[in-house]
Amino acid sequence: MWQALKAHRKDTAATPILELFEQGDRAQDFSVTACGMLFDYSKTAMDRVARKALLGLAQIRGVEPARDAMFAGDKINETEGRAVLHTALRNLDGGPVMVDGEDVMPEVLSTLDRMETFAEAVRSGAFTGQGGKITDVVNIGIGGSDLGPVMAVQALAPYHDGPRTHFVSNIDGAHIADTLRGLDPATTLIIVASKTFTTIETMTNAATARAWMGEAISDPAAQFAALSTAEEKTSAFGIAPERVFGFEDWVGGRYSMWGPIGLSIMLAVGGKAFRAFLRGAQNMDRHFQAADLAENMPVLLALTGMWHHQVCGYPTRAVLPYEQRLLRFPAYLQQMEMESNGKSVQMDGSAVTCVTGPVVWGEPGTNGQHAFYQLIHQGTMPVPCEFLIGAQSHEPELAHHNDLLKANCLAQSEALMLGRDMDEARELMKAAGLEGEELDRQAAHRVFPGNRPSTTLVYPKLTPEVLGQLVALYEHRVFVEGVILGINSYDQWGVELGKVLATKLQPVVTGEASAEGKDGSTQSLVAFLRANG
Ligand code: F6P
């Protein structure tokens, strides 16, 4: 199937994207709406033949039964023997979801209620620190216990009416030092967010925060909460059970902000807005479950990505939100997509038969335009771009900013597709008064190859509900890609080796152990660090 798609790509590569618009209403045909959002994939080289083949691939690879198995609580994370049920965390209507013969929904909903009761107590001042009402919340976590909440809290800034929210993730002491500086320990709540409660970065930062608080107040543990699947470890750390919010191992770290790991989001925006966020995700879940593959937004987003990466061979994709508050969305997607699908072994242990990935990166527009878009427009390697933009902003009084933002977003996808040929560039130079060889030389620098693919996702307004829809859309995209590739998107063994070696290297770095036996480069780096440390 991949071979047939690649052959088709080879046969049609010479047809410019623009020419495809001559065949009927391509904008209509190559776009899909769901949950009030529009996904336009018409500015790509995918034609009807390619789309049909990709949809066939999705069907043959069993996307629909796999999807149903995930929602039903089957243990599709086979390498860890776990169900994959982040969707249960936003199953607000509470229809039964069975794991090992037991309905998990009563527990999910009662934890959500407990989170809300606690969050409202903090927000109202019913729960206080030793110095009074909580003014600041510090979420200590990393990876999935950090990136989702950081991204969402920033995205929902207009809805903040709770305490200030801060995030510490890096083991680099600079992160916690810079965050705690200026905070009052007597009015700060520390949340230790860790699925396993063993992650070295998080446990080290948590201990530092406890020591910082212990210097100022008599009972620091009273101002700690924990979000974890490991309740015995949270109590060993000294956190009282009423401030421990547990979840089950069927919630993957990078899919966990819908449950307790989202407590910092709830503290910032309140229970009602948090539930709206869950509702949005649930709406997308329903669309994903019910829509035909050919009308299914997550499926089409996945297939467009696979067209670009697996078929056209483009190694990266840029995610470019024209929404400043989605500043951390690309970083969040990096973990979601690259930790999920950056694998080289299929579910049965055999090697994958095509490339996996791709590298996901990005920054909000218009900032990116003044940084790396040069390469996107004129570099030698096409970068498929995924633009995101809202129809409305939260700043109606600054409508002219928003109009410019929209114009810039649309201009970029247009420029990527149209490009500028040599004749046009020469005309420009002629108009600037150049002639002869100098005209040709200068014109060459002003040529844009064009025919570069992009997609655009338009949503009404970045509300909590829409944010939920957006994130769920990308989660399901990753799932579909994983199923088609035949890999397990829900484990992450690739992060283990570095952790093991770091533990062994720690005494070497401090000088308690010798670097003997290490490779030459590592020995020399250790020597330099020690000599200059
Ligand atoms: O990076 C590996 C990883 O296990 C991620 O998958 C996870 O989100 C992160 O570490 C943090 O893990 P924990 O929540 O257990 O501290």
UniProtKB/TrEMBL annotation:
<dbReference type="InterPro" id="IPR023096">
    <property type="entry name" value="G6P_Isomerase_C"/>
</dbReference>
<comment type="function">
    <text>Catalyzes the reversible isomerization of glucose-6-phosphate to fructose-6-phosphate.</text>
</comment>
<feature type="active site">
    <location>
        <position position="370"/>
    </location>
</feature>
<dbReference type="InterPro" id="IPR046348">
    <property type="entry name" value="SIS_dom_sf"/>
</dbReference>
<comment type="pathway">
    <text>Carbohydrate degradation; glycolysis; D-glyceraldehyde 3-phosphate and glycerone phosphate from D-glucose: step 2/4.</text>
</comment>
<dbReference type="GO" id="GO:0048029">
    <property type="term" value="F:monosaccharide binding"/>
</dbReference>
<comment type="similarity">
    <text>Belongs to the GPI family.</text>
</comment>
<keyword id="KW-0312">Gluconeogenesis</keyword>
<dbReference type="GO" id="GO:0051156">
    <property type="term" value="P:glucose 6-phosphate metabolic process"/>
</dbReference>
<dbReference type="GO" id="GO:0006096">
    <property type="term" value="P:glycolytic process"/>
</dbReference>
<dbReference type="InterPro" id="IPR035476">
    <property type="entry name" value="SIS_PGI_1"/>
</dbReference>
<protein>
    <recommendedName>
        <fullName>Glucose-6-phosphate isomerase</fullName>
        <ecNumber>5.3.1.9</ecNumber>
    </recommendedName>
</protein>
<keyword id="KW-0963">Cytoplasm</keyword>
<dbReference type="GO" id="GO:0097367">
    <property type="term" value="F:carbohydrate derivative binding"/>
</dbReference>
<keyword id="KW-0413">Isomerase</keyword>
<dbReference type="InterPro" id="IPR001672">
    <property type="entry name" value="G6P_Isomerase"/>
</dbReference>
<dbReference type="InterPro" id="IPR018189">
    <property type="entry name" value="Phosphoglucose_isomerase_CS"/>
</dbReference>
<dbReference type="GO" id="GO:0004347">
    <property type="term" value="F:glucose-6-phosphate isomerase activity"/>
</dbReference>
<dbReference type="InterPro" id="IPR035482">
    <property type="entry name" value="SIS_PGI_2"/>
</dbReference>
<keyword id="KW-0324">Glycolysis</keyword>
<dbReference type="GO" id="GO:0005829">
    <property type="term" value="C:cytosol"/>
</dbReference>
<feature type="active site" description="Proton donor">
    <location>
        <position position="339"/>
    </location>
</feature>
<dbReference type="GO" id="GO:0006094">
    <property type="term" value="P:gluconeogenesis"/>
</dbReference>
<feature type="active site">
    <location>
        <position position="499"/>
    </location>
</feature>
<comment type="pathway">
    <text>Carbohydrate biosynthesis; gluconeogenesis.</text>
</comment>
<dbReference type="Pfam" id="PF00342">
    <property type="entry name" value="PGI"/>
</dbReference>
